[in-house]
UniProtKB/TrEMBL annotation:
Residues 6-360 form the Enoyl reductase (ER) domain. Belongs to the zinc-containing alcohol dehydrogenase family. Pfam families: ADH_N (PF08240), ADH_zinc_N (PF00107). One of its GO terms (molecular function) is metal ion binding. Its cofactor is Zn(2+). The chain crosses the membrane at residues 164-185, 191-217. It comes from Peterkaempfera bronchialis. Keywords: Membrane, Metal-binding, Oxidoreductase, Transmembrane, Transmembrane helix, Zinc. This is NAD(P)-dependent alcohol dehydrogenase.
């Protein structure tokens, strides 16, 4: 099978939309999905900064959504014509997967980042027969089609705009899941969200939907305006008294804080802004040491890393689409669509902060 896909051939080069070849249909337990839209996540772009770790050349993309066109075997639980959102890959049988924590799968890194399923490594080639890296996050969905394991495809209502739903499989899942799953935010709780990008704004929307008092911290006025539209109190990040201001706005300190920036300074600000027993969650990968200020974790305060919003995608994605249908999770307002052929323009706009969430439409 031949189709178009965006190939990244080196860490320095731009994407090139090329013809690629899938040499076999889906195996048992797999699906062939026609991609309707795929979000661009900063994890896709971070491949350039992790040179040598993620194998290239490759087709990236891990926020895909589309329509099932072929199933491998009778036991996928899905049918041709089903609309699906694709999420991260997991083994399905390790202790964490069995314990409803697939984001902490024992094989998460190998399946999603560093080579994928070895038995499928040679099934995906370029037009000249050159091997492409195995499926990125179990998808490689910067393409017209993707082969995925059925367990990381979530059926959604066909009345929904499937071309816009892909970011619910990672970026929006992460922010909303941190609020709903990791923290369990409820009415009257207080939360400070540091960074008003795609993940942070999804967290703001989820916190507002939960009835929380929410403070959003960012250095871009336009992002703060979005956060305010979604129900948060905006707070400019450059002010020197952030913890004190957050404590005043949250009546003595936030019960929860979510950092999406990876900034050591903001992480320490977030810890100081917490009330006793408060919980800080980190979702960004740290690239430097994180020195904590004395007393940062006193009085029951704690800090943890949150992967993929602690989500079981098959449970959280339908919950988010239900909130969207009720007008309480307006994620579509963060999206700008681009033709797949304009993937490099989408990357430039994402890097420059001109768009919150690019979605590529084949």
């Amino acid at each position: 099978m031949r189709f178009g896909a965006a190939v990244l051939r080196s860490y320095e080069n731009r994407f090139a939309v090329e013809e690629v070849i899938l040499d076999a249909g889906p195996a048992d337990g797999e699906l062939l999905v026609r991609i309707a839209g795929c979000g661009m996540c900063r994890t896709d772009l971070a491949v350039r900064r992790s040179a040598g770790r993620s194998p290239l050349p490759a087709v990236l993309g891990h926020e895909g959504a589309g329509v099932v066109v072929e199933t491998g075997g009778p036991d996928t639980g899905l049918s041709v014509g089903d609309h699906v959102v694709l999420s991260f890959d997991s083994c399905g049988h390790c202790r964490n997967c069995m314990g409803a924590a697939p984001a902490y799968c024992d094989s998460f890194a190998s399946l999603n980042l560093f080579g994928g399923r070895k038995e499928n490594a040679a099934r995906f080639t370029d037009a000249a027969g050159g091997e492409l890296a195995p499926r990125w996050f179990g998808q490689s969905s910067f393409a017209e089609y993707a082969v995925v394991a059925a367990r990381n495809a979530v059926r959604v209502d066909p009345a929904l705009p499937v071309e816009l739903l892909g970011p619910l499989g990672c970026g929006f899942l992460t922010g909303a899941g941190a609020v709903m799953n990791s923290f369990g935010v409820g009415p009257g709780d207080t939360i400070a969200v540091f960074g008003a990008g795609a993940v942070g704004l999804a967290a703001v929307m989820a916190a507002t939907a939960a009835g929380a008092v929410t403070v959003a911290v960012d250095r871009h006025p336009e992002r703060l305006a979005l956060a305010e539209r979604f129900g948060a109190i905006p707070l400019y990040a450059a002010s020197g008294d952030l913890p004190d201001r957050i404590q005043r706005l949250t009546d003595g300190g936030a019960q929860y804080a979510l950092d999406t920036t990876g900034s050591a300074q903001l992480i320490n600000d977030a810890l100081r802004a917490l009330r006793p027993t408060g919980h800080l969650g980190l979702v960004a990968r740290l690239h430097t040491a994180l020195p904590l200020e004395p007393g940062a974790l006193d009085r029951g305060r704690r800090i943890s890393h949150i992967c993929e919003g602690d989500a079981v995608p098959g449970l959280l994605i339908p919950r988010l689409t239900g909130l969207w249908q009720a007008g309480r999770f307006p994620f579509d307002q963060l999206i700008r669509t681009y033709p797949l052929a304009d993937i490099n323009e989408a990357e430039r706009d994402c890097d420059a902060g001109r768009v919150v969430k690019p979605v590529l439409v084949p």
